[in-house]
Amino acid sequence: MAASSAPRSFLQVAATEEVVSPLRVVQIEGLVILKIIKHCKEFSPALVTGQLLGLDVGSVLEVTNCFPFPIREEDEEIEADGANYQLEMMRCLREVNVDNNTVGWYQSTILGSYQTVELIETFMNYQENIRRCVCIIYDPSRSNQGVLALKALKLSDSFMELYRANSFTGEKLREKNLSWVDIFEEIPIKVSNSALISAFMTELEADTPVTQCDYDRLQLSSNPYMERNMEFLIECMDDLSMEQQKFQYHYRNLSRQQAQQQAWLQKRRAENMARKAAGEEPLPEEDPTNPIFKPIPEPSRLESFLITNQIANYCNQINGVAGQSFNRLYLMKALHDN
Amino acid sequence: MAAGDRTVLQFSTQSTANLSAKVHPLVIFNICDCYVRRPDQAERVIGTLLGSILPDGTVDIRNSYAVPHTESAEQVALDIEYHHNMLVSHQKVNPKEVIVGWYSTGLGVTGGSALIHDFYSREVPNPVHLTVDTGFRNGEGTVRAYVSVNLALGDRQLAAQFQEIPLDLRMVEAERVGFDILKTTSVDKLPTDLEGMEVTMQRLLALIDDIYKYVDDVVEGRVAADNSIGRFISDTVAALPKLSPPAFDKLVNDSLQDQLLLLYLSSITRTQLGLAEKLNTAAQIL
């Protein structure tokens, strides 16, 4: 009755835990998209990264600005320089009223080959400091085909727990029902622009009904792109088969070890029977110092998961481009007939 | 009567005859964003323009950042240290981008601008001043570029004049991203490739319809025939390669089969992945 409507004291409010609403959508400003595209295109084919700044509001993560990172050398002293650069940029941006909360980072990729262990490690690093962070992947090679290849990724929570425990054995994965699809979650992107910008863009838009991206999309030759995709796919399959071989080796070792253990156990039992018959103390049935009882560690499945993810990505891309090519070919056919 | 002493006011135009500037859409976005975020008491935003000078003399403006400043009726103060810090930071990422000028919002050039222009001309030999009218005073957003030209009377320097130079506002990158995304205040979903393909094909269809209508109009005499347009159309139609139907069909079918092959391969790969997954994690060690 009246109890629930009484105002809560500050202490009470501060003490109640916030329920973290799940991240549903990432809202990016047009400015950020243009900056990312410019930075990635200028340095392609080298891979570049940058920081995203914005606000975390409820179930929407707003990204309002970004700045690029300089290309890192392997030198030790430049590491400190990198941190200084970041602080300097954030300080300067603060002075012109730009939100300077880090909400994630962006990186460019070639043909979608971004699932690496480094990505996961970077995610874990960021996650320690920021409650919600997102990684935006941009693929400049796909933009030559007229597609805006922008993706927002996040590690799924169950995967993060497993990673922290650093155990990727078969049983743990089965417990959590985690398969390779669950590692990364893709979050839908929304684009927002301020009213001033949209006024300018409406005005400055060229009058022609056909734009540059239409020319890119209608290009008939997609062969080089497909060829490279297939090359990457084949390499990944090789990697996957290597991982499979590692597993097979492990299983073989394990079964061999078990056979050895059984044999040793039999021998012990026979000995014990003999000893009992002779009236002596039976020996224990286990012997931890014997090397054949040493448990063989199971290889981690993280690599194979990542590779599987990678392959799935390539397959998806091939499907997408093939779909586009079908459209173009039929269009060409229709035009010719006319 | 100093008849022989006629001095002529010289407008030296030779150096600026072929100077023009090219602005990338990112710069406009940056400027608008800084204007929206300006502190309450400031009326306009001032900042530095970064870019490069192309070999043919055109100034290519690629990036920009705002510089805090204070302005009053008599004087203008610019935060020079901030300007240098940002410049150093930006150059760490892209050492090829140098200062090419400065920008301010608001229509026209004011008195204070001359001082700032002076400051920037100490950094760069011929800075370009860009004004972006965010107030839309003329009923449209005007973006203008100026350079400073010296007015000399004989040998004496009188004043500097802001002379407008042609500005190229082609938005190639913005077109690539898609104006639909950048024009509206919010877009719910980035379009997928197939949707984009659909839009493109609709545009192509619209263009072809336009051409049909035009040709019909000319044939019926409704519109005066323009020879150059007619030549363009005939060139375009002639650009379709003349292949015999069987050869063309073979070409199309071959390409179709290649794509189908790739699709088949990728489907097999995915099946394989599914199988491998099941085998790897379902196996239990007894």
TrEMBL record, chain A:
Residues 270-295 are annotated as: Disordered. Pfam families: eIF3h_C (PF19445), JAB (PF01398). Transmembrane segments: none annotated. Residues 270-279 have a biased composition (Basic and acidic residues). SMART domains: JAB_MPN. It is found in: Cytoplasm. Keywords: Cytoplasm, Initiation factor, Protein biosynthesis. InterPro entries: eIF3h (IPR027524), eIF3h_C (IPR045810), JAMM/MPN+_dom (IPR000555), JAMM_MPN+_peptidase_M67A (IPR050242), MPN (IPR037518). Component of the eukaryotic translation initiation factor 3 (eIF-3) complex. PANTHER family: EUKARYOTIC TRANSLATION INITIATION FACTOR 3 -RELATED. Component of the eukaryotic translation initiation factor 3 (eIF-3) complex, which is involved in protein synthesis of a specialized repertoire of mRNAs and, together with other initiation factors, stimulates binding of mRNA and methionyl-tRNAi to the 40S ribosome. The eIF-3 complex specifically targets and initiates translation of a subset of mRNAs involved in cell proliferation. HAMAP family: eIF3h (MF_03007). Belongs to the eIF-3 subunit H family. This is Eukaryotic translation initiation factor 3 subunit H. The lineage of its organism: Eukaryota, Viridiplantae, Streptophyta, Embryophyta, Tracheophyta.
Automatic annotation (TrEMBL), chain B:
Keywords: Cytoplasm, Initiation factor, Protein biosynthesis. It is found in: Cytoplasm. PROSITE patterns: MPN. The keyword Transmembrane helix does not apply. Its main location: cytoplasm. It comes from the Eukaryota. Gene3D superfamilies: Cytidine Deaminase, domain 2. Residues 21-152 form the MPN domain. InterPro entries: eIF3f, EIF3F/CSN6-like_C, JAMM/MPN+_dom, MPN. Component of the eukaryotic translation initiation factor 3 (eIF-3) complex. PANTHER family: EUKARYOTIC TRANSLATION INITIATION FACTOR 3 SUBUNIT F, EUKARYOTIC TRANSLATION INITIATION FACTOR 3 SUBUNIT F-RELATED. Component of the eukaryotic translation initiation factor 3 (eIF-3) complex, which is involved in protein synthesis of a specialized repertoire of mRNAs and, together with other initiation factors, stimulates binding of mRNA and methionyl-tRNAi to the 40S ribosome. The eIF-3 complex specifically targets and initiates translation of a subset of mRNAs involved in cell proliferation. Belongs to the eIF-3 subunit F family. This is Eukaryotic translation initiation factor 3 subunit F. It comes from Hibiscus sabdariffa (roselle). The lineage of its organism: Eukaryota, Viridiplantae, Streptophyta, Embryophyta, Tracheophyta.
